[in-house]
Write a structure and sequence with these properties.
Belongs to the metallo-dependent hydrolases superfamily. Adenosine and AMP deaminases family. Adenine deaminase type 2 subfamily. With 339 residues, the chain is α/β, with parallel strands linked by helices. 52% of the residues lie in helices and 14% in strands. The protein is built from 17 helices and 8 strands. Strands 1-2-3-4-5-6-7-8 form an 8-stranded parallel beta sheet, sandwiched between helices. It starts with a helix and ends with a helix. Bound molecules: hypoxanthine and zinc ion.
């Protein structure tokens, strides 16, 4: 297969995205448009100047600019436009399902009501399903640099919306904020019937991944790269069949790997880990879902079979019902057999 043929094959392959922060899909063009619509001044003069500022050496560098960018999101319409713009890109990449993160505290802490945020996102998700055929679910993330009380307050605000939220996650600055800090908030979320995920092992040590699985009892791990430093942990993740939502271009941009060639994705698959490919914050990290698949495929030598496995893992690790998962996985097999 030529590179062009392989890209066409992967574009057509049905795929789910399981690790994408909706605020991280805010493209500079939309940032300017929303700033203007809301009468806000940006500390940048042009789209080019914004893109030039996206040179990060670590997670915190990125987070500082990401929280600043989210400041242009004010109205329900802003959140709907943000979500729809993402789903259009996903559909163009052949994505058929997404489980998207949102950070309510980033907005409520600057006076935007929780209900404004969630109503706008749900409107975008609804329209995406109707007009693009892309299904989606919503995952509320606690900001881990804030305290446990703030997580509980956010969970309280989510209570009227539980039918619309599939799970809770944990994001923001990892080191110094282990999953254990939120063990009780996650237990309360689980008691409400929510699924649990957590970023772990992006910059934080294998011990944080152990905590996420043993203490918080997550349903999947977001990133998980540093789990590979611990053989017993890797074996445990393989044995449990834990899904890892891996984000190759994010890892490159935040300097978790020096080059994409040294990215562990191929190694993860060869070890039997249930890895998936995701874009994390595509507007900031330089690529949506397909670009993450293809850049990594080229850099680490993923085979056609690896790519099919990744697509199947994305549905198997999703929060769709067992029947829906089986149907979507059969769709991947049918596509692979026909192409
Ligand atoms: O890549 C990320 N890591 C942790 N927190 C985040 N919040 C948005 N994106 C990220
Ligand atoms: Zn993330």
């Amino acid at each position: 297969m030529t590179d062009t043929d392989l890209t066409a094959f992967v574009r057509g392959l049905p795929k789910a995205e399981l690790h994408m922060h909706i605020e991280g899909s805010l493209e500079p063009e939309l940032m300017f448009e929303l700033a203007e619509r809301n009468g806000l001044a940006l500390p940048f003069k042009s789209v080019e100047e914004i893109r030039a500022a996206y040179a990060f050496s670590n997670l915190q560098d990125f987070l500082d600019i990401y929280y600043q960018g989210a400041g242009v999101l004010i109205t329900e319409a802003d959140f709907k436009d943000l979500a729809l713009a993402y789903f259009r890109r996903l559909a163009a990449d052949g994505g058929t399902h997404a489980e998207i993160f949102f950070d309510p505290q980033t907005h409520t802490d600057r006076g935007i009501a929780f209900d404004v945020v969630i109503k706008g996102l749900l409107a975008g998700m609804d329209e995406a399903e109707k007009t693009l055929g892309v299904t989606s679910k919503l995952i509320l993330c606690f900001l881990r640099h804030l305290d446990e009380d703030a997580a509980f307050a956010t969970l309280e605000q989510a209570k009227p919306w539980l039918a619309e939220i599939v799970g809770v996650g944990l994001d923001s600055s990892e080191v110094g904020h282990p999953p254990a800090k939120f063990a009780r908030a996650f237990q309360a979320a689980r008691d409400l019937g929510l699924k649990i995920v957590a970023h772990a092992g992006e910059e934080g040590p294998p011990a944080y991944v152990w905590e996420a699985i043993d203490l918080v009892k997550v349903d999947r791990i977001d990133h998980g790269n540093r789990a590979l430093e611990d053989e017993a942990l890797t074996a445990r993740l393989v044995r449990d069949g834990t899904t890892l939502t891996v984000c190759p271009l994010s890892n490159l941009k935040l300097c978790g790997v020096k080059t994409l060639e040294e990215h562990p994705l191929k190694r993860m698959l060869d070890l039997g880990l249930k890895a998936t490919v995701n874009s994390d914050d595509p507007a900031y990290f330089g690529g949506y879902l397909l670009e993450n698949y293809m850049a990594t495929a080229t850099a680490v030598g993923l085979t056609r079979e690896d790519l099919v496995t990744l697509a199947k893992n994305s549905f198997a690790g999703s929060f769709l019902s067992e029947a829906e998962k089986a149907e979507r996985i059969a769709g991947v097999d049918a596509y692979a057999a026909a192409n």
